[in-house]
Amino acid sequence: MKQACNIPESMSLAFSLSYITVTFLIEVMSSANARVVWDRSNDIHKENQMILKENIPMSAKREESTQSKALHSESSSKHICCCYCLPDDPKSSVFDINELLSLTDLTKMYFSTVGDLLSRITLMLGIYGSLAMFLTMVPFSLTELFCNIPSCTGESNFTSNSYDENHCWGPISRINAYRIFLAGFVLLIGPFVFFSIQKNKFIQIFATIVSFSVFCIMFIMAFHLLAIGRGKGNPALANFSALPNIFGACSLAAVSHATLPHIIPPILNKANLGLGIAIVFIAVGAFYALLSLMIMFTFENDKIQEIVLLNFLDCSIVPGVFFIYFLGLYTTFKVSAIFPLNAVALRDNIWAMFSSFQWSRIWAVERLLFPLLAIIPPTVIAVVTENIEVIVGITGSYAATTIQFIIPPLLVHYSRADTQEKFGPSVHIKHASPFQHNFWIILAIIFAVFTITTVTILYITHQS
After folding, report:
1. Within 10 A of 142 (CB to CB), how many other CB atoms are there?
2. Can you state the angle between helices 321-328 and 201-227, rounded to 10 degrees?
3. Where residue 245 falls among pLDDT bands split at 50, 70, 90?
4. What Cα–Cα distance (Å) separates residue 173 from each residue in 119, 167, 180?
5. Alpha carbon of 334 to those of 206, 291, 329, 414, 428: distances in Å?
6. 167-172 long-range CB contacts below 8 Å, 24 or more apart?
7. Residue 334 belongs to what H/E stretch?
8. Interval 341-366 mean pLDDT
9. What share of the chain in percent tops pLDDT 70?
């Protein structure tokens, strides 16, 4: 977001707390795996007892019951011994993260019924906001690209963003072109939501390669402009009115929290999981901070686009029409790979909320109604407004903040109590967060409350 580039320093605390809450989630996943194994072993023991009661004669039941209890006690002691493995112990443990549990599975396991419902609603609202943001970004970028067809004359290809006044192709206005692109994208990508998406590894690899290439081009071009003295940026020291948009930009980071339970279990070697995630956070954070600073000093502040990538669609910046179209179509390619996955996740969450009702298993409801409920609301939002900053600001400032800084601390608090109750107060969780003191839990929640309160006040002040 263009205003988010103005104060990257203010995100350092949020960035650090985001990493802390990721370690909280990993610990919760570890504890949840142990709980699943614990419950499963108890169920097996109960089944064995039932079989013994049905097949053993009455005269031998007392003796067999005594032996069964001894065997169960020995088995439990083995589990407890394994549970007490040190965090860096390479031996197998019930705390190994092998079970595939979603974030909603974790909230259902550790939260009350009301807490689980509120968490599901928050997660769904966050996904709805992300989908609305995606559906706005694609037609917005395509309109900017194809309504300003580059001719490489050395002049800027950007015009005013006043959609209602400027025309795109002949009698077609820019706002109508925006809606045409929106309708085309929904008709092409929307049907994937009605099916189960599997084996998308190659699509994700392709999207990752394209993303890396695009960011490298942006980085090199911005560095080149600054090196030859063509930088026009003069950023302000701070712009606190941009805080809603900055926290809104965290919505993409919040998605990583929601999908983390699906990413960790397939990893074969989890010995240095925490260190690996820390390296990823540092590398990505440093790259984004450096790129943001370079963009701040390369372009004039009032001319930075809502999608920063659009500032590079200029023949005086990139060498040739090919790179302009490559950069301009990147948003469409990237969203095309992400949108179906998020929409399917939203569809499954909607079904899970109503799965206890018999009518939710009707074919028309499960296969048609729920997918439409995942597609229609964000599409309506994208039709009503093309203001990406408002959508991202509201989504990130409320739903994403809750998903990042409230749900993980509460989950780790309740999971620690549950784990100590089942395995004893001296239990060592194999993938425990290094931030064990309750101070970190309180700090994350206070930060979330401060963020939501500040953003709300700024929104109200801005409207008045």
Report:
1. 21
2. 130
3. low
4. 42, 4, 11
5. 9, 19, 9, 37, 41
6. 168/143
7. helix 330-353
8. 85
9. 77
Q: Residue 168 phi/psi, 5° resolution?
A: -105, -70
Let me know: does 151 contact 144? Beta carbons within 8 Å.
Answer: no
DSSP 173: E
Nearest-CA neighbor of 74 among 66, 62, 63, 86? 66
Instruction: Compute the distance between CA of residue 221 and CA of residue 215 in angstroms, rounded to an integer.
Output: 10
Here the tokens at position 224 are 């080149």
Predicted TM-score of the model (pTM): 0.76
Mean pLDDT of the chain: 78
Average pLDDT over residues 408-416: 94
Cα separation, 318 vs 71, whole angstroms? 73
- How buried is residue 234: exposed, middle or buried, by Cβ count under 10 Å (0-12/13-18/19+)? exposed
pLDDT tens digit string along 139-191? 998 988 888 766 665 444 443 344 345 678 778 888 888 999 999 999 999 89
Token pair 């993303």 in the structure block, residue: 211
Pair 411, 29: CB distance under 8 Å: no
Give, to the nearest 10 degrees, the angle between helix 251-263 and helix 330-353.
60
Alpha-carbon torsion angle 379, 382, 388, 392, nearest 10: -40
Q: Provide the pairing of β-strand 172-173 with 167-169.
A: antiparallel
Nearest to 316 by CA among 160, 159, 161, 151: 151
Q: Which tokens belong to 409?
A: 């601390």
